[in-house]
Write a structure and sequence with these properties.
Helices cover 26% and strands 40% of the residues. It is α+β, with helices and mostly antiparallel strands. The protein has one domain: 2-Layer Sandwich (Alpha-D-Glucose-1,6-Bisphosphate, Chain A, domain 4). The protein starts with a helix and ends in a 6-residue tail after the last helix.
Length: 171
């Protein structure tokens, strides 16, 4: 499951309800023992996610449908079966910080448990078009919108990946 989670996300998209595409922008692989050519593999990825969803009325003046994209910068470590990630949303890119870890843990002989921990921090005071006096009022709507984009993908990922892995015709 670890390798599929890391390497086959683009094939999982048809199993996801709120993602239109995942585009691999950059991928780099590193081996801990390059002279031997063996050892745990570390992979850094930059994926662009293209989401779909209704934009709440409170932020429609600021957020346009083409902005429902985010960049996923991930560092996968095969030795620990973990991934450190940072998401950069296209909306309010410099004012939104979202990062965390995903860890895959053996949970019996044929089962994997996925633990996702993350944080989200938004600073609306520097966003053009948002009056400082309204930043506190708009912040909950913006946070809710961003969380509504990210959280379902994190929650649905395991179900979608499981459906993909058990789909007929998977090579």
């Amino acid at each position: 499951m670890f390798a599929a989670y890391r390497d086959e996300l683009t094939e999982v998209v048809p199993f996801m309800t709120n993602v239109d595409a995942i585009n691999v922008i950059k991928r780099e692989e590193f081996c801990d023992s390059p002279s031997v050519g063996k050892g745990p593999l570390r992979v850094t990825l930059h994926n662009e996610w293209v989401g779909r969803g209704e934009i709440p009325r409170a932020v429609q003046g600021i957020v346009k449908p083409e902005m429902i994209r985010w960049d996923d910068y991930a560092e996968w470590d095969e030795a620990t079966w973990a991934c450190r990630w940072e998401l950069k949303v296209r909306v309010f890119r410099d004012s939104v910080r979202c990062s965390g870890t995903t860890r895959l843990l053996a949970d019996g002989p044929s089962s994997t448990r996925v633990l996702v921990l993350g944080s989200l921090d938004i600073d609306l005071k520097e966003i053009p078009g948002v009056p400082r006096i309204l930043a506190g009022t708009v912040k909950p709507a913006v946070e809710k919108f961003i969380v509504s984009l990210v959280t379902p993908n994190l929650e649905q990922m395991n179900v979608s990946l499981s459906s993909y892995l058990s789909s007929p015709g998977r090579a």
